[in-house]
Design a protein that fits this description.
- The protein is built from 7 helices and 2 strands; from the N terminus they run ββααααααα.
- It is mainly α.
- Helix 1 crosses helix 5, helix 2 runs antiparallel to helix 6 and helix 4 crosses helix 5.
- The radius of gyration is 15 Å and the shape is globular.
- It starts with a strand and ends with a helix.
Length: 140
Amino acid sequence: MYLLNEQLQPINADTFKKEILAEIDEQSTVTEAEIEAELANGYLAGISSTAKMISRTPDLFEAASKVNFSPQLAGSNIWEKVRIHLCRILKKDSTASEIADAIIDVLISIIPGGVIIKIVVKKILRYVLDMGYDRLCPIE
């Protein structure tokens, strides 16, 4: 899996995941609202990181991207896409490693430039581990 940090530098996926798993017990419990806020921030960070690659005037591009940006709407919509993806991929007995893989996989497809931010992954992983599969993915 090819991952990029906020400086658009490649990072080793295995090392990144090992760091997440090693640090997950230090991550305090989070709410959906916190996850949504982190996802919105991560999306903006992706725009900011990639603006330099795709625009002659990155500052203007970044500013224009924020004009109609709604963090609440973006965060809740992104979280819904992430949750749906996780519920399709995960099982009741999925390990923390498998959950981390699924989180990383969906985030790199949603966040501009495939930028991956450790705190976002950690918070989602903590939330999923705390909630459990049945509460995360209720039968509708």
